[in-house]
Amino acid sequence: MAAKPGIPKGTRDFSPVEMAKRNYIFNTIRDVYHLYGFQQIETPSMEMLSTLMGKYGEEGDKLLFKIQNSGDYFSGITDEELLSRNAAKLASKFCEKGLRYDLTVPFARYVVMHRDEITFPFKRYQIQPVWRADRPQKGRYREFYQCDADVVGSDSLLNEVELMQIVDTVFTRFGIRVCIKINNRKILTGIAEIIGEADKIVDITVAIDKLDKIGLDNVNKELAEKGISEEAIAKLQPIILLSGTNTEKLATLKTVLSDSETGLKGVEESEFILNTLQTMGLKNEIELDLTLARGLNYYTGAIFEVKALDVQIGSITGGGRYDNLTGVFGMAGVSGVGISFGADRIFDVLNQLELYPKEAVNGTQLLFINFGEKEAAFSMGILSKARAAGIRAEIFPDAAKMKKQMSYANVKNIPFVAIVGENEMNEGKAMLKNMESGEQQLVTAEELIGALTK
Amino acid sequence: MAAKPGIPKGTRDFSPVEMAKRNYIFNTIRDVYHLYGFQQIETPSMEMLSTLMGKYGEEGDKLLFKIQNSGDYFSGITDEELLSRNAAKLASKFCEKGLRYDLTVPFARYVVMHRDEITFPFKRYQIQPVWRADRPQKGRYREFYQCDADVVGSDSLLNEVELMQIVDTVFTRFGIRVCIKINNRKILTGIAEIIGEADKIVDITVAIDKLDKIGLDNVNKELAEKGISEEAIAKLQPIILLSGTNTEKLATLKTVLSDSETGLKGVEESEFILNTLQTMGLKNEIELDLTLARGLNYYTGAIFEVKALDVQIGSITGGGRYDNLTGVFGMAGVSGVGISFGADRIFDVLNQLELYPKEAVNGTQLLFINFGEKEAAFSMGILSKARAAGIRAEIFPDAAKMKKQMSYANVKNIPFVAIVGENEMNEGKAMLKNMESGEQQLVTAEELIGALTK
Fold first, then answer.
1. Crossing angle for the helix pair A158-174 and A16-35, nearest 10 degrees?
2. Which residues of A touch B121 (CB under 8 A)?
3. What is each CA distance from A173 to A147, A282, B51, B211, in whole angstroms?
4. So what's the pLDDT on residue A98?
């Protein structure tokens, strides 16, 4: 008795319709990356554990999928070690490879390994799956795709500008209305400097973020509870209440941060990015948002995140500037800036708003009904001509009942069906049926091609 | 001191140029699959080991990459079992998941799991990597892509015909001249039947294959050495010496196999496939080749393989008809037929024959030289218009030395460079340089777009 097959938890099969939608997402992102001169690379699914371990924190190390060594993976391990049953320690003996956890560390490894072949600035994109042994839950998977673009080897803020243009263009093409949030790590550092509470910056941004919900008094109360001094809270007031246009916000920040060189640098960078983008004219809103504080340890300059306006969902794209991507692999001084589109969340948003263009999801355009060997042979001739003209077409391979064949066309959403019986054959034509309108007309091969390619 | 990073043996990084070439291959195959009504699916990289084990023979089981269970993978294992150090047995306790070894078993699992959602016949294609812990060697990798198309749930030989048309179309598009070899498992069974040596069929095809090299006498000698009776060898003579057109070969086989019902069925099937293809008109040669005997245990009807004519390399595509794909997962009676393109070998052939179309490998079409902030700001305006017109364009992000920027354009094979200095800015124009001819002309944004989109 064969076992009923299943798949590992947190993983997914993608059906033809889901794949068509996913391809639409990936192709749209890819096309825009190309418009901006980014080039694709791919790295192996497995990396050496020595490359991956220690790059994602202790928690990250635990979430790596490790691959058991081939052959006798027990060699070199003492009985005592075995009986210790120390799962983490022995994993590093049983396994020397792991599945990649993100695209950033493999990219850093790639840059270091291929430094002599790469011409900098290197504008690369990468669309590949990553794996995390996370507890699966709604919207969180153990295998999912990342779509990253990074420019490394250039400090220019034009890179930040272009990445925001890419974000704007991609979501405009999707038809998803978004707000692009932008902040700068240097501004956050500046704030910490002027209030003298460098280690409290996350607490501060979390509290500020609640202003709309809980009001100023409660925000200040929360800050005090987090151990921030009265004096510091007083200094924070203009920042908590920061409002108005981006220009107004930047003006306020210049005053508040006048004593912090780093802070002012962050304001200046943001000003350049926002001003240049204003000149270029974005289709979507871009907003300076001081509560944005993603990946503090990693980013060193501009940081950004994208929120969908019409769907309740977390950030659907994010990124920022980092200053030392490759240092951990012994190559210092490589600055970079990148973005990552969240394909799975974009998939959900497009589904919820029903924004997939019809042609993105449609496959076969024409099905020939099969009435038997002779009719099929005749149909195959027209079919070949249709395909040569670029029409995606098929013939039902078996002379099954008409009902079954028509139902196949319906399920596959095929818009046209060609019916070739004895009468049609005698006339050297096919009956072309429009499945939506129900309209039928007797056509030659050329007329059929004309009808489907117009 | 950071360790010099490497990647697991048998795996590869793909550079931008390699990726462009690989995408050209995948896109060509994908486009043709679509023309024939095939739909894409994807399955997870990891499958349950219970799904994979026992499907590829004992050797295959050893070549599976196994993924260590998360958490305490020692639980439920006795000290005695641990100390036995039985690597294979304990792997099944330490690991419950493995990386997929091919696309066929996951596809079978998919069909069984989703049988209620699938409308048959199901024409699916799948382009994904597979992993094998094989000893790496030239042209053999531990991670490589397969590009499979299968039709399941239809016995019709039209499926075989269409798969051969797909093969013909794909290689015509690549510009690779090929010979499509076709055989039929039923013909081989028939031969074994009439000579009464069912278990010797592989020995027979191997010996026949050497006819050109070693001559008839030596072939017969080899057959005798393999323990085939004198009487059987006599009966085999017309088959060993089989020659002429496909029609002539089929005529001979009809006579020789007249006592084998299965053999005659195989001849009849081959006749239908070859005759229909002749009517359709293939661009490449198709040849009935009795020495073709791939995967005997698996295939049950037509089998095929593709050989490149202008490069010395093994089969670059193969496939065939199987009758019980899903039986091992408890779903009987599903017949199917499929092909698999060998992307890595096709990559090598296209490289060797230098057949990549120029536009497939080219990325960015236009680079703006960056002379400083003001010039860059002006250039960004034209750049936006060019991109909106679909031109893949970039600006060098830093105001680096001219030589460095021009060298970037050269390395990236960018055909046009736009130079915007003070003079150009004052005229509201850009100097457009054709990198191949060296020709320069002063153009407006509109003229620039015109020059690059014509």
1. 150
2. 396-398, 408
3. 16, 13, 41, 61
4. 97
State which residue of chain A sits closest to B92, comparing Cα positions: A68
pLDDT at A325: 84
Q: With contacts defined as CB-CB under 8 Å, which chain A residues touch B370?
A: 158
Neighbours of A344 (CB within 10 A): 18
Of residues A59, A199, A42, the one with CA closest to residue A107 = A42
Q: How many CB atoms lie within 10 A of CB A403?
A: 8
Q: Which residues of chain A have pLDDT under 70?
A: 1-3, 294-297
Cβ–Cβ < 8 Å for B317, B339: yes
Q: What tokens appear for A59 in the block?
A: 């928690």
Q: What is the pLDDT of residues A273-323, one digit of tens each?
A: 999 999 999 999 999 998 887 655 678 999 999 999 999 998 999 999 998
Phi-psi map region of A244: left, alpha, beta (phi>0 left; psi -120 to 50 alpha):
left
Q: Residue A294: its pLDDT value, please? A: 65
What integer pLDDT is reported at residue A291 of this predicted model?
Answer: 85
pTM of the model: 0.94
pLDDT computed for residue B22 by the predictor: 96
Please report residues of A whose CB lies closer than 8 A to that of B51: 5-7
SS (H, E, C) chain A: CCCCCCCCCCCCCECHHHHHHHHHHHHHHHHHHHHCCCEECECCCEEEHHHHCCCCHHHHHHCCCEEECCCCCCCCCCHHHHHHCCHHHHHHHHEEEEECCCCHHHHHHHHHHCCCCCCCCEEEEEEEEEECCCCCECCECCEEEEEEEEEECCCCCHHHHHHHHHHHHHHHHHCCCEEEEEEEHHHHHHHHHHHCCHHHHHHHHHHHCCHHHHHHHHHHHHHHHCCCCHHHHHHHHHHHCCCCCHHHHHHHHHHHCCCCHHHHHHHHHHHHHHHHHHHHCCCCEEEECCCCCCCCCCCCCEEEEEEECCCCCCCCEEEEEECCCCHHHCCCCCCEEEEEECHHHHHHHHHHCCCCCHHHHCCCCEEECCCCHHHHHHHHHHHHHHHHCCCCEEECCCCCCHHHHHHHHHHCCCCEEEECCHHHHHHCCEEEEECCCCCEEEECHHHHHHHHHC
Tell me the CATH architecture of domain A362-453. 3-Layer(aba) Sandwich (3.40)
**ipTM at complex level:** 0.93
Closest CB to A83: pick one of B3, B79, B411.
Answer: B79
C-alpha A302/C-alpha A304 separation (Å) is: 7
Arch. (CATH architecture) of A16-353: 2-Layer Sandwich (3.30)
Per-residue pLDDT at B55: 87
The pLDDT of residue A295 is: 59
Burial class (CB in 10 A: 0-12, 13-18, 19+), A315: middle
Token pair recorded at residue A254: 């210049």
* Facing A5 at nearest CB: one of B51, B96, B117: B51
pLDDT less than 70: residues of chain B: 1-3, 294-297
pLDDT value at position A199?
80
CA angle A417, A418, A422 (to 5 degrees): 145
CA distance B128 to B104: 11
Instruction: Tell me what pLDDT residue B374 has.
Output: 95
| Contact residues, chain B, for A397 at CB < 8 Å | 121, 151, 154, 156, 158-159, 162
Instruction: Report how far residue A89's alpha carbon sits from residue B135's, in angstroms, rounded to the nearest whole number.
Output: 27
User: Domains of chain A: which residue ranges?
Assistant: 16-353, 362-453
State whether A159 and B2 contact (CB < 8 Å): no
A308-317 tens-digit pLDDT: 999 999 899 9
Residue carrying the six token digits 């070693």: B214
Distance, in Å, from the CA atom of A122 to the CA atom of B396, rounded to the nearest integer, reads 11
Q: Which amino acid is at A416?
A: F
